[in-house]
Amino acid sequence: MAVHPLLLQQFPLLKSLPADVLERLAGQASSQSFAKREVVLPKSTAPRHLCLLVNGRLQAIDFTLDGREVGLYFIDPGDYFAELALIDGQPQPELVISNSVSQVVFVPAAEVRPLLFSTPAMAEALCRRLAQRVRVQVTHRQILGLTNPLQRICAHLELLTLGGDGQRRIVKAPTHQEIAIMVSLTRETVTRTFQVLQTRGVLTRDGEDLVVDSARMSDLASGGTSD
Amino acid sequence: MAVHPLLLQQFPLLKSLPADVLERLAGQASSQSFAKREVVLPKSTAPRHLCLLVNGRLQAIDFTLDGREVGLYFIDPGDYFAELALIDGQPQPELVISNSVSQVVFVPAAEVRPLLFSTPAMAEALCRRLAQRVRVQVTHRQILGLTNPLQRICAHLELLTLGGDGQRRIVKAPTHQEIAIMVSLTRETVTRTFQVLQTRGVLTRDGEDLVVDSARMSDLASGGTSD
């Protein structure tokens, strides 16, 4: 089942492609809906498509060698995934599941792969994305190395606040359960820590967002007492 | 001080460039020697060059948020580094030091960056390299999550053995100290574990290499007793 070329054109990665190329890709693409907590991409198989999220929210998940679940990153509408397998043909290193009802477009790898490397704007976008993944993993590894749970949660919240100064905002904040998976702690520990942070005014809920006093959060993340 | 175009041509990343482009890059490149344990690239500055290792051996190192040193990966002759900053202009996420006397060629980022994205062979090579870094980080994170030191060292040695079946070889094996840094353990623990593995015949030294009984190593890495 093909998708409309205008749907593909909405994705930043593909928008530099000429209309005829987009039309050809759209003719070979397919679209699929996923219920909440459904597996979108299994781990350890090599996906043969570039996957693009139209709406909903996905999360990439891995398991430690002794079996604990670790959340890696979120995928939001407009974003793409399965790019590692597209590049090197190796298996998918992590599981991707839907955190809410989601619609995903699948574009065959054989069609899109040559375009990625021969279109400078796409090559640069892909390299920037991969560089970003490497950088997030570096930070994430540093966070998981922290033994104090309060410090670990604060360092993770700091990672989630992007740009701006002073007061920062985490838009559509992950749930306590989602954060717990991300930082390898229990949901109860995250809830307890959030209560402490909210009582002390370091964290304020604003609808679906969280507003962060970033100076004090940063102090707590580096092991300070933020008093 | 310029370098010879033939020197640049030896690097797999650059070999697809036409002779006149290589000559131009070589005219703007410079070469520098580093003593053992010298800092080649400091952390947290944005390097303005693509760096290529002519000879010697380098190691990328990071520090945990509470100050422990963690070795990330080795850089061998023919290899390049500082590619993250080249792509996104952000600071270098890790320190690069020389593990032995090393010669490094520096090519200005402003010259080489446009070529990376407009030369399909270079774009693909760069994407493959970054994908490989993401995959190694995924595995490395899983290994650091193991609490048993024997298991952690075996999982790391398994990661270092590439290709082949049955008996595998780690060419120019890292020292106990280098492995200790890689897996966040003391040198003493690594030496003690190596003695156990060598006594049991799981690991055999052959000159500079290590020969690994990969079936039993893999069993130990997954928490088995390998008896």
From TrEMBL, chains A, B:
Q: Which organism is it from?
A: Candidatus Accumulibacter aalborgensis
State the UniProt keywords alphabetically. DNA-binding, Transcription, Transcription regulation
Protein name (database record): cAMP-binding protein
| Domain Cyclic nucleotide-binding intervals | 13-133
Which Gene Ontology cellular component annotation is one that this UniProt entry carries? cytosol
Question: Annotated Gene Ontology MF terms?
Answer: DNA binding; DNA-binding transcription factor activity
Q: Which domain of life is it from?
A: Bacteria
Q: Which CDD domains match?
A: CAP_ED
Domain (HTH crp-type) spans 147-216
